[in-house]
Amino acid sequence: MKTETTTKQTSERELVTTRTINGPARLVFEAWTKPELFQRWWAPKSMGMVIVSCEMDVRVGGGYRLEIRHPSAPAPMPFFGKYLEVTPNARLVWTNDESASGPITTVTFEEIAGKTRVVLHDLFPSKEAFEESRGAEAGLPEQFDQLDELLAT
Amino acid sequence: MVQFTNIHLDASFAALADVTRRGVLERLGRADASITDLAEKFDMTLTGMKKHVGVLEQAGLVITQKVGRVRTCKLGPRRLQEVTDWLEKYRQLWEARFDELDAVVEELKQKERKASR
After folding, report:
1. Dihedral of alpha carbons A112, A25, B103, A43, sign
2. What is the pLDDT of residues B5-21, one digit of tens each?
3. Which of the residue ranges A83-87, B61-65, B87-91 has the most confident prediction, judged by mean pLDDT?
4. How far is the alpha carbon of A48 from chain B, nearest alpha carbon, in Å?
5. pLDDT tens digit string along A20-61?
6. From A4, which residue of chain B is nearest by alpha-carbon distance?
7. Shortest CA distance to B4 belongs to which of A80, A41, A77?
8. How far is CA A142 from CA A128, A150, B11, B19, B80, in A?
9. Which residues constitute the domain of residue B61?
10. CB contact under 8 A, B16 and A144
11. Is the interface score ipTM higher than 0.90?
């Protein structure tokens, strides 16, 4: 049975997301680090995403590069960075270099009775970088306010 | 990869960037309407209105339902509040990912079980 996924903003530049996966940490780690498995879950079909390419060199200093297609984007969007820490079955840290405001992501796997507690931290370089990543919200077009008014009536 | 969330918001913004589509939302906010009604009200061809409704539908702002020969449109479940709630979008992306990850891990478990028999 699936468990709850929670996301909290824990500081002005950090997000923490948690979920318990129904399986041992070594399998979660395997699914996170083998490209053929990773591709099957990272770009959820339910979100309309399709991975068009995926390269991962999972070791400290190794890089990754993904291209993901979404109906609302005219061309596949690249995502890339490098791994800063790789601790088998326990912890991964990587950069998100496609944007200067991209966070450093740390994910930890903690096994409890055959299940794995996954804790994912996104630490942005600054408060401003975090706000920039949420840019679409910050830059709400004026028409949104107008629409809100219209719909409220 | 956080930037991903913004793709979904972009779809909503694109949907709202057009004056006709905003008009359609406003009208649907008052009452459900068929595509034919909407085409007439906005003085457009049926094909043109279908396109607009399609964009709104894809952004989750409108849902349509076909009853007999008439396709009725109404406001979608996605409230504007939700559209603008970046954190919730981000959480939903991770929820969708983790759901699929759960399925992949389940499959790996099954394989191991079979292999150890």
Report:
1. positive
2. 555 555 666 677 778 88
3. A83-87
4. 10
5. 999 999 999 999 999 999 999 998 888 888 899 999 999 999
6. B95
7. A77
8. 22, 13, 17, 13, 14
9. 4-84
10. yes
11. no
Q: Calculate the CA A141 to chain-centre distance.
A: 26
d(CA A94, CA A123): 11
| Residue reference for tokens 């399609």 | B54
Residue with tokens 């499959």: B107
Q: Residue B30: which CATH number?
A: 1.10.10.10
CA distance B75 to B70: 17
Indicate the length of chain A as a whole number: 153
CB-CB under 8 Å, B106 with A144: no
Provide φ and ψ at A7, rounded to 5°. Answer: -130, 130
**What is the CATH T-level fold of the domain A6-152, as seen in this structure?**
Alpha-D-Glucose-1,6-Bisphosphate; Chain A, domain 4 (3.30.530)
